[in-house]
Specification:
The chain is mainly alpha-helical and about 220 residues long. About 50% of the residues lie in helices and about 10% in strands. The chain has one domain. The protein has a 3-stranded antiparallel β-sheet with strand order 2-1-3, sandwiched between helices. A hairpin with a 4-residue loop joins β1 and β2. α2 runs antiparallel to α4, α3 runs antiparallel to α4 and α6 runs antiparallel to α8.
Amino acid sequence: MSYKYNNYYYWKNVLCNKKEVWKCSIMNTLDLQESIYINTTILDYDKNTLDNNWACYPNIKALLGFIQYIYLPTAFFYIVNADNNDDIFMPICSTEEFIEYIKETGYNESIVNIMEQNLNELISYWNRDELSINTIKKFCYKFNNIWNNEKNILYINVFSNPREIADFIIKNEDFIEVVEEDIGLSKNQFYNLCENIYYNKFTKNIFVEFLNNKIGCIV
């Protein structure tokens, strides 16, 4: 089945119209609870580069499209060009064209093969009759383990609802006071904020901004 999100022209058009893709808050207007949150990171210790973003997408297909056409190409382009370029650049092209590009860079073949495997796995998801968030979570778990080394970290985490975000951030009781100080809310206030997303228009509109400004990088 064809989806608008499975087309690089869609993402190119979004960017050409100067719409936000990294920190967007696009909730599902028909069913708010289908909305999915994502946190992405590109971290380079040697160059002190950190690109970290929170976003909300309306459904699993939109999220898959963002990971396949925006995040992975951006992260992988940065890796293969890290010696020559310090900037974060978004290459907008088909996944097949991007795979050919990274193969032609002359970068470490084994690493390029892993990049290709990651991208091909995402491609395969479009053919599934049903795609669950657990499938994406399993992909993220494998991806994060692979791309975690002493030089670079590439990181993706997805959350099916705001409560999951709160649970993840305040999972260690030993650090609750530190977290509360960083975000400016008590544990209970943070949970209340997350639980009001679906019922309070103001909270819904500012939640992603809050995540980017107060939570930031959780790697």
